[in-house]
């Protein structure tokens, strides 16, 4: 049981008796519980002073703790906060019993800074400079709306997606409760949240008053199974990437890629904007391109995080496009070869796996127990072929990135050169690369996504290619020496 009491300063204190739990109280007679496992039932009365609470850090410590203890509790304990919302729209999720999405608008000044500690569910972390300043075109756009056109924030922003334990709606207020950082927190909209907090904390008094007119859409997820939260977060963030790509395409930023692909196999298979025809999204193309950027990745730093942070690849591309000298001028002319390489790896992987006793048809795909199915409809557009099995991206990414070891790179001199022709190199190393993926796949609980996120998979694959190339160099050198001696 939890008692909420008023104090002389008009603050509410939470004291726990028995099992740790948070209950938010209201004098409203007709209370409506609309989420959470226990329904958030309100059983006790509250003083007028306690009604003024806008955020409560729920902890297992007594209220007489020191300020340092209280700060630590906010970081480590559950979180309950209150925002005003005249109307809230709960929508059940079909197929998921008890799961709901609740939509409302919240004043940006009521979004608590305590959510800083609830970002583990979000794969897209806002960029900051060395001085801690938020950066990037997304942040700049949100800040511009907040400060220059605050009343349009609710329409121009997609909002914050928040996974929570429970939500209670009282006339004019909603109370949101989070308990587990592994599944609760900001699932999508981290850039929006960061921009809001930055605007609140850094603007002057006049600008701060204008923020009172800014509202942000809140999309609150309750009753979502823990096992699918990572998939939801990744899917929401990939959808945002599609929107960003559409804007970049409209601005002509993909023109170098489009020109490089003219007349190449698979050119029409690339979808450059939302709604475009094509089975290969431009976001995937940008990831493949950045895998070979040796200004950013080398033999010790690998692009493993691009698997779950696809957005980063576009940010890198746009930044590199404007750089002087530009890495894009070296990478884009070789894009058709990189895309053919991706399909070549896909084509050869099932056979290489079978040679090592791993049956692709028995492979579990994604995060479910479904088996990979044999089908003749998996296209390899950049080879103009098709294959029977779909190779998961979690396997493809570390294998494709490893061929960065086969590039002689010199940006200052404008040099990008394959050390060994790709058609010759792939058959020599494919078994070794697939062997790494099989090992990581088994170690990762038979989940391909874990392979794609594991830095160890990228470093091992890179080492396999590099070791082969070093051995090939020795063979070539020995052959040359023998010819000279003859």
Question: What is this structure's SSE topology?
Answer:
Elements: E1 2-6, E2 12-16, E3 32-33, H1 48-51, E4 55-57, H2 67-76, E5 79-84, E6 89-92, E7 100-107, H3 137-148, H4 153-156, E8 160-164, E9 166-170, E10 173-178, E11 185-188, H5 190-202, H6 205-210, E12 215-222, H7 229-250, H8 255-260, E13 270-271, E14 280-281, H9 282-290, H10 310-322, H11 327-331, H12 335-355, E15 378-380, E16 385-387, H13 393-402, E17 407-410, E18 415-418, H14 422-443, H15 448-453, H16 455-485
Parallel strand pairs: 8-12, 13-14
Antiparallel strand pairs: 1-2, 3-9, 4-5, 5-10, 6-7, 7-12, 8-11, 9-10, 15-16, 17-18
Verbal overview:
The protein has 486 residues and is an alpha+beta fold. It has two domains: 2-224, no CATH class; 236-476, no CATH class. It has helices at residues 48-51, 67-76, 137-148, 153-156, 190-202, 205-210, 229-250, 255-260, 282-290, 310-322, 327-331, 335-355, 393-402, 422-443, 448-453, 455-485, and strands at 2-6, 12-16, 32-33, 55-57, 79-84, 89-92, 100-107, 160-164, 166-170, 173-178, 185-188, 215-222, 270-271, 280-281, 378-380, 385-387, 407-410, 415-418. The strands form six sheets. A five-stranded antiparallel sheet has the order 3-9-10-5-4. It has a five-stranded mixed sheet with strand order 6-7-12-8-11. α3 (137-148) packs across α5 (190-202). The longest helix is centred in the last third of the chain and has 31 residues, at 455-485. The radius of gyration is 27 Å and the shape is globular. The model is unreliable at 1-74 and 365-375 (pLDDT under 50).
């Amino acid at each position: 049981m939890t008692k909420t009491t008023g104090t002389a300063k008009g603050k509410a204190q939470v004291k726990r008796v028995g099992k740790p739990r948070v209950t938010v109280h209201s004098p409203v007679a007709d209370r409506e519980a609309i989420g959470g496992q226990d329904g958030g039932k309100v059983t006790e009365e509250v003083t007028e002073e306690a009604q003024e609470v806008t955020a409560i850090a729920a902890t297992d410590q007594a209220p007489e703790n020191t300020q340092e203890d209280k700060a630590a509790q906010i970081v480590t304990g559950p979180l309950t906060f209150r925002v005003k919302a005249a109307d809230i729209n709960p929508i059940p999720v079909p197929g998921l019993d008890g799961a709901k999405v609740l939509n409302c608008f919240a004043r940006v000044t009521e979004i608590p800074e305590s959510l800083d500690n609830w970002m583990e569910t979000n794969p897209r972390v806002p960029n900051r400079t060395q001085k801690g300043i938020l950066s990037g075109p997304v942040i700049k756009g949100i800040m511009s709306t907040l400060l220059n056109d605050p009343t349009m924030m609710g329409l121009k922003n997609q909002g914050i997606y928040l996974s929570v334990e429970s939500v209670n709606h009282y006339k004019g207020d909603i109370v949101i409760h989070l308990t587990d950082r592994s599944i609760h927190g900001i699932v999508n909209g981290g850039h929006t949240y960061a921009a809001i907090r930055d605007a609140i904390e850094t603007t002057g008094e006049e600008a701060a008053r204008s923020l009172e007119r800014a509202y942000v859409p809140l999309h609150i997820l309750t009753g979502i199974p823990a096992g699918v939260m990572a998939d939801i977060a990744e899917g929401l963030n990939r959808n945002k990437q599609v929107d960003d790509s559409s804007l970049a395409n409209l601005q002509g930023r993909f023109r170098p890629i489009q020109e490089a692909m003219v007349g190449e196999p698979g050119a029409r298979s690339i979808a450059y904007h939302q709604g475009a025809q094509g089975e290969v999204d431009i976001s995937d193309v940008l990831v493949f391109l950045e895998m070979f950027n040796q200004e950013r990745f080398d033999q010790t730093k690998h692009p493993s995080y691009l698997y779950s942070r696809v957005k980063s690849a576009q940010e890198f591309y746009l930044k590199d496009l404007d750089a002087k000298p530009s890495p894009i001028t070296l990478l884009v002319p070789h894009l058709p070869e990189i895309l053919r390489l991706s399909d070549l790896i896909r084509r050869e992987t099932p056979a290489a796996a079978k040679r090592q006793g791993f049956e692709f048809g028995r492979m579990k795909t994604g995060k479910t127990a479904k088996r990979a199915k044999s089908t003749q409809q998996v296209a390899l557009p950049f080879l103009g072929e098709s294959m029977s099995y779909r190779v998961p991206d979690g396997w493809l990414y570390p294998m494709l990135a490893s061929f960065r070891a086969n590039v002689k790179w010199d940006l200052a001199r404008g040099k990008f050169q394959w050390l060994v022709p790709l058609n010759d190199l792939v058959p020599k190393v494919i078994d070794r690369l697939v062997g790494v993926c099989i090992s990581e796949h088994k170690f990762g609980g038979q989940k391909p996504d874990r392979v794609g996120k594991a830095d160890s998979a990228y470093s091992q694959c890179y080492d396999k290619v590099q070791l082969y190339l070093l051995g090939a160099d020795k063979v070539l050198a020995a052959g040359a020496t023998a010819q000279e001696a003859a």
